[in-house]
């Protein structure tokens, strides 16, 4: 790039002009931003040349790893042929159509159609409107209420943040908007009390049935959940949870929405997270791994049940984005999915690197500050505990998680902490040696916590 100021100046320019997402800008400006300017495989490099193993795949998204020239070539070619055209007024572009077909081919079952968006947040706003127009088209306009979960994350748009169950997000925007309510999450370690995980899974699933009773079945449009909560802390539900949720949605005639933004595209060793849990959603927002983050693109996978009504009964759906099905993003996504297929990355996670990661991650459970270390595929959540025998947590969970995370980063490992849980979600291409590097560095950070904090 010409005209690029010296990297050393970027921090000051950033502080002067750039407001970052989910950031305390005063603190960030004082500390200075870390400038990332290069990446290869599972490693990222900062402007001082330091290398970090990115155990978080960017933001849960770089599923095929960094530096895939095939994807940039595909985007470049598409940009030269047709950089943009819309999908609104009776037109489409080859990549948009072929991508919809490709996604449907992996969704299996009845998710045969896709509506494109630019992000996971927009995907959640989109199904939220779809669910309501679906019931309206069926002559049930009063079926509008949506049930979601506490500590869920579904994005930062007004509907996305409302569907999410993050209290501090609600407080900043007078959210949730009307028509959305929340039930408890299947977080056994923190909230399961004396119940076994299996009992607790059933108990919190049945809160859905109770809420439907309270609201009245004729008023409830949909229930939404992530197969495994991501930003909420990689909360892996007990095995009893999902089948019971699916039963309730089926019997109560409520649409089941599986938010696949993180769990989709191989993360759990299946193409989509709901396949891991053996349930069939009616709607499924997607993003992130769809393009491995190389370009922004998302969408909603729509089942025949909903699509048939939209196609046959609805007429116009007054909804869409200038860049719905953007040809360059779609071309990049197609190439990304080709790589996942050709390299067998979903099978690799299921049969090879996923089990290897699971054993390495689980081995951290012998550490005295670890309450549990669980994973599915390449998605791991590790619970820090002040007293593992009683499941007692540290008094200041955010500080504890941040301490461990910062130790990891200082030692060349990018991890994410949610409160007192450590989260990993590396590229599906990570090698065994690189998995060992993740757990070795995390173990050192756990030692640091044990040696510096007494409670
Ligand atoms: N649904 C889920 C399940 C997500 O994880 C979104 C929707 C929204 O997607 P977009 O593309 O609009 O960001 C997400 C996004 C974190 C973190 O710190 C997680 C997300 C985004 C940013 C940060 O864990 N997830």
Radius of gyration: 22 Å
Number of helices, counting only DSSP H or I runs of 4 residues or more: 18
CATH topology of the largest domain: Aspartate Aminotransferase, domain 2
CATH architecture descriptor name of the largest domain: 3-Layer(aba) Sandwich
Report mean pLDDT, rounded to a whole number.
96
Distance between the termini: 51 Å
Bound molecules: 3-[O-phosphonopyridoxyl]--amino-benzoic acid
Spatial order of strands in the largest sheet: 1-2-3-13
What is the assigned CATH homologous superfamily of the largest domain? Type I PLP-dependent aspartate aminotransferase-like (Major domain)
Structural class per helix/strand content? Answer: alpha/beta
**What's the main sheet like?**
4 strands, mixed
How many E-type strands? 15
- CATH uppermost class of the largest domain: Alpha Beta
Count the domains. 2
The quaternary organization reads as single chain
Q: Return residue spans where pLDDT drops below 50 for at least 5 consecutive residues.
A: none
Shape: globular
Q: How helix-rich are the residues, as a percent range?
A: 40-55%
- The percent range for strand residues is 15-25%
Cofactor: pyridoxal 5'-phosphate
GO molecular function: transaminase activity
Keywords: Aminotransferase, Pyridoxal phosphate, Transferase
InterPro entries: Aminotrans_3, Aminotrans_3_PPA_site, PyrdxlP-dep_Trfase, PyrdxlP-dep_Trfase_major, PyrdxlP-dep_Trfase_small
């Amino acid at each position: 790039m010409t005209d690029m100021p010296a990297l050393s100046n970027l921090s000051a320019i950033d502080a002067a002009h750039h407001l970052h997402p989910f950031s305390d800008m005063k603190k960030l400006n004082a500390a200075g931003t870390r400038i990332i300017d290069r990446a290869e495989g599972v490693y990222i490099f900062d402007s001082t040349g330091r290398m970090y193993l990115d155990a978080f795949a960017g933001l849960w998204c770089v599923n095929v790893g960094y530096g895939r020239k095939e994807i940039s070539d595909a985007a470049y070619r598409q940009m030269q042929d047709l950089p943009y055209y819309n999908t609104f007024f009776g037109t489409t572009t080859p990549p948009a159509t072929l991508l919809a077909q490709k996604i449907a081919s992996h969704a299996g079952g009845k998710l045969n159609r896709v509506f494109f968006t630019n992000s996971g947040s927009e995907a959640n706003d989109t199904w939220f409107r779809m669910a309501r127009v679906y019931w309206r088209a069926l002559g049930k306009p009063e079926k509008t209420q949506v049930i979601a979960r506490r500590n869920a994350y579904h994005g930062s748009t007004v509907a996305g943040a409302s569907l999410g169950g993050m209290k501090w997000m609600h407080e900043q925007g007078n959210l949730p908007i009307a028509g959305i309510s929340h039930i408890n999450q299947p977080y056994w370690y923190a909230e399961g009390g004396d119940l076994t995980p299996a009992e607790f899974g059933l108990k919190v699933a049945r809160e859905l049935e109770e809420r439907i009773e309270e609201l009245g079945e004729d008023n409830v449009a949909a229930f939404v959940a992530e197969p495994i909560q991501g930003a909420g802390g990689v909360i892996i539900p007990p095995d009893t949870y999902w089948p019971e949720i699916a039963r309730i949605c089926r019997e109560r005639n409520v649409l089941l929405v599986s938010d696949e933004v993180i769990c989709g595209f191989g993360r759990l060793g299946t193409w989509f997270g709901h396949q891991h849990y053996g349930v069939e959603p009616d709607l499924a927002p997607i993003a992130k791994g769809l393009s491995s983050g190389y370009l922004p693109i998302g969408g909603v996978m729509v089942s025949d049940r909903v699509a048939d009504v939209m196609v046959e009964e609805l007429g116009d759906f007054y909804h869409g984005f200038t860049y719905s099905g953007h040809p360059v993003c779609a071309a990049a996504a197609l190439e990304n999915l080709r790589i996942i297929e050709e390299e067998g990355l979903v099978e690799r996670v299921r049969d090879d690197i996923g089990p290897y990661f699971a054993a390495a991650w689980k081995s951290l459970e012998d550490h005295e500050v670890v309450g549990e270390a669980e994973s599915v595929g390449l998605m791991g959540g590790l619970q820090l505990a002040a007293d593992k025998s009683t499941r007692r947590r540290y008094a200041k969970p955010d500080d504890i998680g941040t301490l461990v995370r910062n130790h990891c980063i200082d030692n060349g490992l990018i991890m994410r902490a949610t409160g007192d849980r450590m989260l990993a979600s590396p590229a599906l291409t990570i090698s065994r040696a690189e998995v060992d590097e993740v757990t070795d560095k995390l173990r050192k950070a756990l030692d640091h916590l044990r040696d510096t904090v007494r409670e």
